[in-house]
Amino acid sequence: MSFDAAPQAPVEQTHSLLGLDDTLPPIEDQPVLEYFIIKQEVNLEVNFRDKRIEGTTDVIVATFNDKIEEISLDAANCEIDTDNVFVTELREVNGEIVEGQKRKTTATYSDPYEKLSHPKGWAWRAEHHDLRRLRARSVFHSRKSDVPAENREFEGCTPVFGSLKINLRGKAEQDRPRLIIRKSMGFDGGEKTNKQFKLTIPFVNNHPRDGVHFVGVDPLDTRFTHMYTRSSINPGTASCIFPCVDDHGSRCDWRISIKYPRTLGDALQQALATQSNGTSGNKMQIDGPERVNNLAEEDKLREMSVVCSGFLMEETVDPKDDHKKIMTFEPEKKVSVQKIGFAVGPFEHIDLSSEFRTEEDEVKLGMNALKVHAYCLPHRQDWVRNTSAALTMAADFFTYTFARYPFGNFKAVFLDDLVEDTVSLYSMAFISNRLLFPEDVMDTEIEVTRKIVYTLASQWIGINMIPNTRNDLWLIIGIAHYMTDLFMKRLCGNNEYRFRMKTLSDKLVEVDVERPCLYDLGPILHLGQFEMDFMALKAPLVFFILDKRLIKASGGHGLTRILQKLLTKVQIESSDKSTILETEKFRITCEKGARYRLESFWAQWVHGSGCPRFDVKAKFNKKRLCVELTLKQIQYEAVKRPELEKSDFLRVIKERRSGVKLGEVQPLYTGPMTVRIHEADGTPYEHILEIREDATRSTKFEIPYNTKYKRLKRTRRMKEKQNVGASMDAENLDDTLLYCLGDVLQTPDEQRDWELIDWDPDTERKMDQESYEWIRVDADFEWACDMRRTLEPYMYVSQLQQDRDVVAQQDAMLYLAHGPLHPIASGFLVRTLIDRRYFHGIRTMAAAALPRQANIKDISMLGLRQLMKAFSEMFCHKDSNQPKPNEFSDKKQYNVRCAIINAIAQVRDANTYKCPLEARQFILDQLLFNNNEDNPYSDHFYIALLVEALATSLIPSKQDEWYARQNKVPNEEEKQFLEKAMEQIERVLRRDEWTNSYQNIWTIAGLEAKRRLMKADVIPKSYLDFGQYLLDGTRDLIRIKAFESLIDLGAMMDPTVFTFLIYSLTTDPSPFVRSKLIDAAASGLAAIAFGEHTKVTKSEPLHDEGDPILLVQDSAEEINARKEKFARKENLDAALKALLREMDETYGADERHYSTAMRKALDHPGLGRAELESMLDLAAMMFEEANDWVVTLNLPKAWKVERPAQQLANRLTIAFKSYYKTKPKQPIVQQATTAVVAPTPAPAPAIEPKRPVPLARTSSIKINTHKSSTPQRPTPQPHVEKDTIVASPVVSRQPSTSSSSTPKPSKPDLASIPSAKRPRPDKEERHQSPAPKRPKVEKHSLPDGGSERKKRRMVTLKTRNLKRLALILGQPLPKPVPNGRTSLPSGPSRDLSSVKDSITAKPARKPLPSGEHPVRKPLPGGPSSSPHSQKPVHKVSSSTHSLSTPKPKASSPMATSVASTPANPAPARPKIKIIRKPQPPPAT
Q1: Helix (H) or strand (E) holding 1286
Q2: Which residues contact 768 (CB under 8 A, 6 or more apart)?
Q3: CB neighbourhood size of 1112 (10 A)
Q4: What whole-number distance in Å separates Cα of residue 453 and Cα of residue 461?
Q5: pLDDT tens, 687-700?
Q6: Which letter, b or e, does each residue of 1158-1191 get, where b requires 16 or more Cβ atoms within 10 Å of its Cβ?
């Protein structure tokens, strides 16, 4: 049966995504429990075929006091056999731990993941996303305040769920009385008594949603079978593997034994060909059609192995089954469960330390030499060797620079389907196979090496040393990245290191707006990977500038020396307290090491958000012979609220909903700043300025000037011009160093060919008059800031050519890239591009800056011609655009080559907004004539770059109405070139199908090119071009790119595409694919919210009316629409409202398709906790909350018994059958009475009523959909005659039992009615307790002397139309019946006619505390008594018992029906609202 709840009135409230659940009580953090884990032993077996992990875990717990009787552990998404949980008390005897008697105990387990689903009868839709989130609040909840990791052995632990509760007293001791002895506080009040218990818990984990991932088990998954644990720095994931205390501060000893199949054939239960005839002793299930591709014979024999945290202690064959093996691991040190991980698969072992470490280094390191091992799936050894080549070198570098490796060895395991690229665990790391690259691929080697080395650095900081609370996580992330950057500096050079840091600094200044501070970022890392990305960006930069300041303050002892002492101290002490990092303690450590106060630095960079922004102005004062430098901090003025981006849409929503505290912008940043002034004679002078806290935002400094004669400058400039192009011989070294960079292309012929010009005489005269060459603020790179300087252009050119620091050159390039358009600037950019002595990053910046110089006034396309000539000179045959055979051995030249191609594609004509045809043809020629035959390196990335550049050149930079009109005019030349370009893109796509490129990068580049061209309306949209790549079996990266392309083109809201997207997002076996598709769906909804797919219809003016010269401006509607579109990207609330409006107006016709697909996704049992939370966010974006809720209730089930007519001798044969009750066993007999159309009240007897009678009172229990505020009083009668459902016309929304204030007549003498039901002694004993008394009122008997009979356990359906109700319940139409009552069976059976009218029939009851008037509440077992003047009410009863209802003797002659004639019968069938109130507990 289905009942529809009453619709709720709409209430104006905040969007459900942004609400902080203010109306609900907050979820309180669990208190610290006074016990801790000493050791945990896990014995588990891995079953690949069924995706199951089962086993037992022994948890040794120490309690602090004797009052603890229950232990709470974390377990989720698994089954616990609570009937077989054992507890053993451990005692210490003669210094040894002795186990006591092992006994069973009581345990309760409530799976928190059950909150992620709901009962089937609830019938929740996608619109019930708010109810789903409320139900799962406890699962999504994250602790607000952390318990420090220090002194956990004295404080206790904090389980995240506490879902498994185990009683420490055995089952035999549950009912045994305890002796409580009270001790005086004077003896040992401050001493905690420790007791140790061993808890043995069996568990089974079938098809895990979180915590464990299986690969290569599904029928269509043909990859090598393996499994691994999924770990997270946030609590809640590890408890999905086995029961534990999922707390980052609870570190204990471990022993992990894993039973696994010996071979790959055993794992998939595929027998060898020699065993398929059944000769094997073990009956193995032969795999038939379930797996499409059965394993080859050689693959069936591949040995499986386990890679786990810790040392391998034992490896044996299972004595019960020789097809299984057991491996046992023990970590050397205490570690939390979040850092434990293991993987099982057919891994191949590679000893990286022996292959890449020389004998000399081995001897030098001695015992400190770290053993580095790699494990990979078959056929990937060469790629692993190439990818992990730097790991051994990094291990030696960290050992030399900082301290010895804290564990025994390091294992790198390469796995499939990892969501993150790398995961750091105890003495090991999980690395995604996406990072593997062969020897001939060099494009990704630096970044991949950085990621892998970071996992090794995390072993020192992050695994061995842990944060005290989540607020201290920035220390772990920052120091590990700092150590990694130091190694990469050793590997790639100082220029690469400083250039990358400057690039990241500029990026941080841009993104660190309205973001939380580093200290507050740790507790919200669970929101998504975007928070970790921001921390990984800012924390290393903070440590970089901290190192610079410590070096300047201490005279050379920077952060490296401090970390070396810290890590060495940890190795020596090896205590738990020394391995805990805390923000304030680390600050004190740095202050002691450098003797430099860091309070202001910590307040500004750690506890503050944002970055400083300086406006620098310099002026030379001739009178005082000094340089006046003004530093003004403008972070308050310059910071603008950034526009919402599609990629950040989900992040902003989650941060807003979680109430993320945004850091305050610092009004004033303090600290030292180095200013370097290159004076007239070329000599640099450094000055250290101190920005103090007492200074204002605008500070003026006077810097002394040293050069007295400017003629030195003129003499030096003449020398420079004479030494142009001079060789770098020893005798000319001093002269050429003054002008060593950018001095190419100086001859007249070269200047003519490259169209270069020099400074004009006026500018040179002005340069000679300057008092300094250039001024560089923050010369030592001690600030991550934005610096605005007002220098002359020639000063930036001097800085670019004469300053050796790559950061100074980068600053100069940033000015030239955004400076004025001038042929002189173009000339210096192309000289920088050509000069190979520059760092390759500076040269690529010069190439990226040249496209702007293509629109110089009166010199059209100068930058384009210079770019093409530079590429031709370096990489093409002479005087042609045909490229030479590829030669990528010089990686710096390869980077410059790629940068020039991208720059040529970015050139645009200022008038047509198009890329010139010659530039497009140049890129097409490079793709056509590309030759990679003799190149030792792969050109896969280069061809992908050419495809993307070709697509970029075809897209106009601005598409106005003029361009749209021009597109309609067929241009044969443009059409032919577009056909050629598309033909080449298709050729690359086909070529990738024949010969696979690295990770199918050609297909990904081709799909990206098509997507961009379709979005720019260059080619028509064709969803089939992407749909063919969505099939199963396609590489994950290609499927992700195809989905992203369809979503970006606006196909997401097509019902078919949306349904398939949600289906793939839900059912894809790879968690990496699921996470990427969730992000893509969020960006698609963000595009709708921002109005990207909204078609604005502009009103076209009539051409035949008005003046043709008249310019008509935009109408008010168009202006408002444009304002609203801008507001969508600035205000999150406006964007979400616009999204709901678009869903309603534009896509409302297909809403049922979206709702059905989303409902299936939300109900899918395979989604993890974080994935389901993100899906709820998507549902809340798309759908408004539902105002109704349809609940489906199961019909009551009953049993009936049948006995066959023929029985065997000495046997009784009976048959039991179940059925559902839909009708009462016996029809309810209703006596016909004459219905009165106009009900008139009966004349009252001669009794003075105590109160007026305003309304008639129904003799029934009224039940509504609202919660009852007052529980019903339990019935004192031992017998219940019938369960009836009585229809009452009284409509009431209140929880009280009656809406009438009529005085109660007194009860008659009690008479018993025989009942076939067995008396219940427990109910008879309740009569000994007096019930609340009723007031004494006179009771009137019926005309025949009988009293009104009571009916038992009546449930009322409230409706206004009894005829409709009778039809629904399958009953005859209602007729007036007398309002009879049955007497209570508390006395001997007597004749009903002998009952007298008396008020002494029963002692009076006290009035119930229900209000001003004493109104009796109805009994749960029967209706309350009716007043004498009450009109009878029609009742439609449905019996649930087999007893017959006693008929009343007679009815009042004046009784009339109130419900027989409704005023306005409803034409439509009303919905029935039924909620049965729970029975209250029996009174004691």
Answers
A1: strand 1284-1288
A2: 710, 713, 714, 717
A3: 9
A4: 13
A5: 999 998 877 778 88
A6: bbebbbbeebbbbbbbbbbbbbbbbbeebeebeb
Q: Is residue 231 within 8 Å of 429, Cβ to Cβ?
A: no
Q: Give the gyration radius of the chain's Cα atoms.
A: 42
Q: Measure the N-to-C terminal CA separation of the chain; round to a whole number of Å.
A: 36
**Residue 903: HSE in the Cβ half-sphere, 13 Å Cα cutoff:** 32
For the stretch 371-420, pLDDT in tens is 999 999 999 999 999 999 999 999 999 999 999 999 999 999 999 999 99
- What dihedral do alpha carbons 294, 297, 299, 302 form, nearest 10°? 130
Q: For residue 1376, which of 1253, 1466, 1261, 1289 has the smallest C-alpha distance?
A: 1289
Please work out, in degrees rounded to the nearest 5, the angle formed at the alpha carbon of residue 334 by the alpha carbons of 333 and 338. Answer: 120
- Residue 59 near residue 159, CB atoms below 8 Å: no
Residue 807 has which token pair?
């950061």
Quote the tokens at residue 1070: 């790879």
pTM: 0.80
State the Cα torsion 1448-1452-1456-1458 to the nearest 10°.
Answer: -50
Q: How many angstroms from the chain centroid is the CA of residue 671?
A: 38
Which pair of structure tokens corresponds to residue 1307?
Answer: 């009860």
Q: How buried is residue 443: exposed, middle or buried, by Cβ count under 10 Å (0-12/13-18/19+)?
A: buried
Can you list the pairs that 1119-1125 forms with residues at least 24 positions away whose Cβ atoms lie under 8 Å? 1121/1096, 1124/1091, 1125/1090, 1125/1091, 1125/1094
pLDDT tens, 1054-1110? Answer: 999 999 999 999 999 999 999 999 999 999 999 999 988 876 544 444 444 445 555
Chain position carrying tokens 């202001």: 600
Q: How many helices (H) and strands (E) does the chain have?
A: 45, 37
Distance of CA 1072 to the CA centre of its chain: 13
In whole angstroms, give the CA distance from residue 1058 to residue 550: 55
User: Both tokens of residue 107?
Assistant: 């345990």
Residues recorded for the chain: 1484
Q: For 855, phi and psi rounded to 5 degrees?
A: -115, 35
**Which residue, 263, 394, 410, 414, is CA-closest to 351?**
410
Under DSSP, the state recorded for 1436 is -
**Scanning the structure block, which residue is given the tokens 């003046």?**
1107
Residue spans of beta strands (DSSP E) within 13-51? 35-47
- Contacting residues for 1406 by C-beta, under 8 A, at least 6 apart: 1332, 1333, 1334
Closest-CA residue to 475 (of 489, 485, 465, 484): 465
What burial class does residue 428 get, using C-beta atoms within 10 Å of its C-beta: 0-12 exposed, 13-18 middle, 19+ buried? Answer: buried
Q: How far apart are CA 914 and CA 963, in angstroms?
A: 10
Neighbours of 1248 (CB within 10 A): 6
Residue 1111's Cβ-count burial label (10 Å; 0-12, 13-18, 19+) is exposed
**Which DSSP category does 302 fall into?**
P
CA separation for the pair 459, 465 (Å, rounded) = 8
Tokens representing 1352?
A: 């038992």
Mind listing the pLDDT tens digit for each residue in 1359-1373?
666 665 565 566 665
| Cα 842 from Cα 809, distance rounded (Å) | 7
Torsion of CA 1097, 1098, 1104, 1109, to 10 degrees: -160
- In the structure encoding, which two tokens stand for residue 1221, read together? 């009750």
CA triple 923-925-928, angle to 5 deg: 115
Helix, strand, or coil (residue 60):
strand
Rounded Cα distance, 632 and 616, in Å: 7
What is the three-class DSSP state of 704?
strand
For residues 673 and 783, the answer to whether their CB atoms sit within 8 Å is yes
Please name the amino acid found at residue 7.
P
Q: CA torsion angle for 1048, 1052, 1053, 1057 (degrees, to 10)?
A: 150
